[in-house]
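Blinded run. Sample ID left blank on purpose so nobody reads anything into the name before looking at the predicted structure. Input follows.
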Amino acid sequence: MRSFAMALLAGCGLALWGFCCAAFGEEAQVVDGIAAIVNGDVITYSQVRQLSAPRERVLRQQLTGKELDSKLIELRQLALKDLIDRRLVIQAFKKESYEIPDHIVDERMHQIIRESFGGDRNTFIKTLEAQNYTLGEFKEKETERIMVQAMRSHNIKQNAIISPTKVEDYYKKHRDEFTSKEQIKLRMIMVSGQKDTASAPAQKALAEEVLGKLAGGAEFGQTAQLYSEDSTRENGGDWGWIDRNTLAAPLEKFAFNMPIGRISNIIDYAGNYYILKVEDKRGGSTKSLAEARPDIEKKLIDEEAHGLQERWIASLRAKAFIKTF
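Blinded prediction complete.
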């Protein structure tokens, strides 16, 4: 029998606890049956529902009716596919006569008890019993999870090297990923010019008076509280940090091109008069290729690893007897 070294298990982490929480959070399934047979191994409907349960709860909070039914079917189909793939991987593990040393499984159990139950083994055991789970059953599930992670890691090229050309091509095509979001901290005064036709000239004159006060040193926030007619009046015209595409295009053009601290002239837009002040700016810068290279290499290595795994799983499916019900 061959043993997987601990290095092959690196990266398993506490993903294992997702299984535990999902299992413990579910009500018992009254009706069960065979969902699939994989080379003679049976996958049950209860196993499918157990895996899909956490996401099902989210869907039930968000959707109703036919849309919910459709999404539940899709979710359970994905869960069944995942269970079939897991079973194929475990079968491949056993076929190769690999084994997981007992001390690795024991260490995993100690990790769960330490990090999720404060080191209290009795509480862990009582939690299992309350959910009709035996320690042996839980340990078996964890062993299978380690098998799957070990086999997936075993079939990935370690220390993959991504060519500089690929990195440069990715950078050119995805520069937006490496450009921080441009934002400005904005205050605004809006004087309506549409109260009625007779008062329109008076409103324009009011806007000019407000601008004059600001030019003379009046504090922008206090002036906005006195004269502005939009929803931010009570907050001194404070819009906070805003992204592009928040304002109407003509206002955005002025706002994002203004220097920090500058007060705009009157902007006549859609019949109203606007005065803007940009208090601060952030973002909008793009990482250089040298700065972005580590992130790009990691992303491309991860994508390559995922592709290798998918091709390996596909080869297992192609050689397997799989029947779904």
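Unblinding after everyone has recorded impressions. The domain at 180-282 is CATH 3.10.50.40 (Chitinase A; domain 3).
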